[in-house]
Design brief:
Distance between the termini: 48 Å
Largest sheet: 2 strands, antiparallel
Number of strands: 2
Strand content: 5-15%
Number of helices: 2
Shape: elongated
Length: 64
């Protein structure tokens, strides 16, 4: 559970959030995991043939 503190403007409207570093890092980890899942889903949707990483690296090094 996040332990957030809010910074408000003169009218009481929330304008910023202050989080403990531990909560912030946890949130970043979860966002990164969701991005990885999204990228995986996009890759699978393309239905392209997959290749081994080692083969890709060899092919890329030949181009350089």
């Amino acid at each position: 559970m996040l332990h957030a503190q809010y910074i408000v403007d003169g009218s009481g409207k929330r304008v910023s959030v202050v989080l403990p570093v531990k909560d912030y890092k946890t949130m970043l980890d979860k966002i990164e995991e969701l991005e990885d899942i999204r990228m995986y889903d996009e890759g699978k949707a393309k239905n392209e043939k997959s290749i081994l990483l080692a083969d890709y690296i060899k092919k890329r090094n030949k181009k350089a």
